Structure formats: structure tokens, C-alpha cells
Amino acid sequence: MKDRVSSLIDIVTQPLQKFMRQKQSGGIVLGLSVIAAIILANSPWQNEYFYLLDNKIGLQFNDVSLLKYSLHHWINDGLMAIFFFVVGLELKREIVAGDLSNPRKAILPIGAALGGLLIPAIIYISLNPTGEANSGWGIPMATDIAFALAVIHLLGKRVPLSLKVFLTALAIVDDLGAVLVIAFFYTSDISTQSLLIGLGFVFIMFIGNKMGVRSLLFYAVLGIVGVWIAFMLSGVHATIASVLAAFTIPADVSIKENTYIERIKNSISKFSNIQPNEYSTLTEQQVHLLYEVKKDTNFATPPLQRLEHTMHPLVTFVVLPIFALANAGISIDIDSQELFSTNVALGVGVGLLVGKLVGIVGFTLLMVKLKIASFPDGMNIKNLVGISLLASIGFTMSLFISSLAFTNEMLINQAKIGIFTASIIGGVLGYFVLRKSTKSQAVDSPE
């Protein structure tokens, strides 16, 4: 009976686990969440959908309310803080030992990303030079790495590994740019006292890193209770706290690879020599050795990568889908006059689609022409255009910035229309351009 239950569980869970291990799965789940949000916002349950998001949640002490915000606010400032924490971990890893650690390799995607940040903003501002609409200039600057990589992975081995690396590095720099834009331009009135308290906790975490503290509990308590709450109360967006906290997480190991290998070999040798008991449980010696292996494995893995590896599925399959459900809902029964009463939709759509293409391709070709950098192996102008079109997929980050840029619901809806239109067109065009440009260049590249 026990074996039958176990077999049934495996039948249910193994396909799910296999799906979650696929690199494009995150983009697929995110896409389904966007579709679900749009359906809910245009269904008989639309009132309940928006009412749920407007419900306030917080702590109440007699007549004093603390951190009382709407569910929508908690998702955007609380749940998305987890997303930005993982973004911060990825940024630090790339800077310490990734594609951004080598200046010669990093210069081209950094330049391309700068073009992809500046040109969309310039296009938006030229179409929305004044008024409340002007504050949305940061919306078309963002690229959704999950969606962009999901599309590129659909092409499999058709796409050279160098292109995937280029897009990833470009998107990482793009994320850093978006974080800086949020930090400097999308904050409310700042409480200096709360901000200094938050920065004080960041400094303590930094000192802990330098002193060799490797306890994730130490960083979790100070990061959440200290940094995140202080930034929430300071007026500086709480997502910035997440990135700063992530940069304090240690990226080095306590024991080197050779030492780790010797210790594991020794533990396995001892384990194999222990006489097993007759039961399903292990002997005390076996349990002790397994804990030693686990401890040594933790010592041999940088805390930064341990956290990133552990939290990535949570962000991909929980945080981002919930964010999409809360932010992508828009009524398609929108008056055309209302839609084009400002140039927000046009600015966002053209900024993303044309701005990313012109900015990334233009800055890349300029750097190559000036011999500042050269094309990586497998890259040409055609697939560079394809990559640039994929970079116009702005979903997550663009939706997030639009919620910071506007309080007017009409402007938010206009921004969403621009985001969806540009992202869908850019994603489809990017897929077909890359497919055509790499048709004769199928190469073996590790997935």
C-alpha cells in the first residue's frame, strides 16, 4: 500500500518538478498569470477582484495602526521586495564572478543596456513633455528578464550561447538601472531618521560579512526587521532595501574546493564502513556523518549562491505570478478617447519597442565601430536586432514602475496597454527574427 501511494505521488509530482526545472517555465507561468489577471478584470468577478486588492492589512494596537496598507501595496512593496532581493543577489554574483566581472567582456552589454535605458526614456519624454504623464518616463526603460529568456530558450540550440550570455548580462545591467531609477526618482517624502536607521542596519550586515558571519538567520533578521521596515517607513522604496541587503550577503566560501572534496571523501569512506541496522532508520553514527557532510557542503557554498538557489523557485513560481495577478488586470472595455487622452500608452509602447531596438542596436554598433568592444562569437547584426526586440518585453518591471509613477488609474491603465502591446509585438518579432537569423547556425550549447 505504501509503495502504491509513493508511486502515485511520483506520478503527480515528477512532471511538475521537470516543468519547474525548465528555464522557460518561469516565463510561461508569468504569462498565464497575466492572462488570468486580464480575464478576472473583465469577468463577472471584476468587482470582487479589485475589492480584494484594495483591502487594507496591518497591525493594530488599540487605536494605533502600524504598517496598514492595501493588499495591492503589500504585494508591490512587500512581496516584490523578495524579487528585488534575488535581483540584488544576481547582481552581486555577476559583478563578483559573472559576466560583469571581466571589464572587457562586460563593456559591450553595459553599453547596450545604457542605450536601452536612455533612448526609451528620451522617446517617452518627447511624447509626454509636461504634466502628470511626464513622470512615467521610467516605465519603458525596463526589461523583463524572465519573459525575454523564456522566449530565447524556446529556440533551444538554435541560439548561440554567447547571445544568451549577452542578453542575460544586458538584462542584469538593465535591472540595476531600473533599481537606481526607482531609488532616485520614484520615492515619496523621505524620513531622514528612518532612512539612517535602515542604512545603519545595512552597515551592521556589512560588518558581519567582513567579520566572517555566515549565518543566514543573522542576515534575515537584520534585513527584514531592520533594513526593510526602516526603508518602508522612510519613504525610500522598500525594494531598494532588498538590493542593499543582498549586497551584504557573503559571496565567498569558508572552505576551499580541495578541502571540501577531501572531507567528503573521508565522510563517505566512514559511512560505507558503518554496519547498517535492520530498520529503515539510520544509526547514530550514520546520522552524525550525514550532518557533517551537510555542514561541510554549506561551508563550501557561498551564502549568496545558497540563498539565490533556494529563493529562485519561490520568486519565479510564487512572487512574480502573484504580482502579475495583482497588477496586470485591466479592463479591455476602455474608451478609445480615454486611451489616447494622453500620450502615455504611445510613449510607453513606442519607448519600449522602438527605443529598446534603436538604443541597444545603436549603442552596440557604435561601440564596435569605435573599437571599444567587439561582437561576441555567434553574434551578428540580425540576431542583435532579435535580442533588442526581446529586450522590449517589459512586463514585470514596467508594470512595477508604472505603479510608482502614477496614482491616476486612467494613466496606469494607459501605461498597461502600452506595456502589453509593445511586449507582445517585441516578443513575437524577436522570436521570429532570431529563428530566421540563426536557422543556419544551429550550435550545440549547454541548456
Account of the protein in words:
- The protein has 447 residues and is mainly alpha-helical.
- Among the domains are: 23-77 and 109-124 and 140-159 and 309-437, Na+/H+ antiporter like domain (Na+/H+ antiporter like fold); 257-299, no CATH class.
- Helix content is 71%, strand content 3%.
- The protein has a two-stranded antiparallel sheet.
- The two termini are 39 Å apart.
* Annotated CATH homologous superfamily of one domain: Na+/H+ antiporter like domain
CATH class of one domain, please? Answer: Mainly Alpha
Helix content: over 70%
Q: Give me the side-by-side strand order of the main sheet.
A: 1-2
Query: What is the overall shape?
Result: globular
The SSE string, one letter per element, is HHHEEHHHHHHHHHHHHHHH
Low-confidence stretches: 442-447
- The average pLDDT is 84
Radius of gyration: 24 Å
Please report the total strand number as a whole number. 2
Q: How far apart are the termini? A: 39 Å
Number of helices: 18
Q: Class by helix and strand content?
A: mainly alpha
CATH topology of one domain: Na+/H+ antiporter like fold
The profile of the biggest β sheet is: 2 strands, antiparallel
Taken as a percent bin, the fraction of beta residues is under 5%
Instruction: Please give the CATH architecture of one domain.
Output: Up-down Bundle
